[in-house]
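Ticket #4471: structure output looks truncated?

Reporter: J.K.
Steps to reproduce: submitted the chain below (85 residues) through the standard prediction queue, then opened the result file.
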Amino acid sequence: LAREKRPAVVLMDIKMPEVDGHQAIAALKSDPETRDIPIIALTAHAMNEDREKALAAGADEYESKPVDFARLLDKIASLIAGSST
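Returned output as attached by the reporter:
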């Protein structure tokens, strides 16, 4: 779907059925057609190692739940601005 729709940014939940968010991030970042799409990992886990694991999988940013929407919007805007240069 990301190849077809070419979103400006992906908000990736880490805890999903079948494929977890880390696997999905790694797959998107390893695909030449989607690797440049910024990804923000979203998770209810707020431990430092959770953040590091998401970033190691290829996420460009990380946000824990409950989501601070103002901060999330700032991160989205920053990633979109950075990807258009």
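Triage note (M.O.): checked the attachment and the full token line is present. Helices lie at 2-5, 21-30, 48-57, 69-83.
Status: closed, working as intended.
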